[in-house]
Amino acid sequence: MSAAKSVVVGVDGSPTSAAALGWAVRQAQLTGSDVRAVTAWSYAPAFDPGWGKRTVQDIEQAHRRELAEFVDLARVPGVQIRAELTEGDPAEVLLAASRDADLLVLGRHGRGMVLRALLGSVSAKCLRAATCPVVILPAVTKGNAGEVLGALRDETGPII
Predict the structure, then answer these.
(1) Is 39 within a domain?
(2) Global pTM?
(3) Is 90 inside a domain boundary?
(4) 154 part of a folded domain
(5) Which residues of 5-31 are buried (b: 16+ CB within 10 A; e: fewer)?
């Protein structure tokens, strides 16, 4: 695989997406790439406990602040990180952002079957439709990550 020059990473405010952003930044250091930290947002009143108390602009600004905080924590010398906030379906936003990227990095949440059935899996949608390689990091768990048991080889097919 040739060195990536543009790494897109999905950031949704979760610990798993923070880990994905950290991984993407380390990958960018190794390959001389830039990082685009992408957050997709939408307003769904049915899922908003503060419904009626906040405006759509308030919600957008909250997402913008959260994304900026994540990016600020991930900054390292020599890697440019650009924060991008886009309204829309997360999978569609990430697929559009990664269209010209060399790599798409996502964190896996491991939501339950009910939520997955209702909302769909962003990771699964991106794996099926992305035009670049996709890296999916496992859900963040407590405890020691353990030792490396294997390494990637030069292969052309997807590795899941």
Answers:
(1) yes
(2) 0.78
(3) yes
(4) no
(5) ebbbbbbbeeebbbbbbbbbbebbeeb
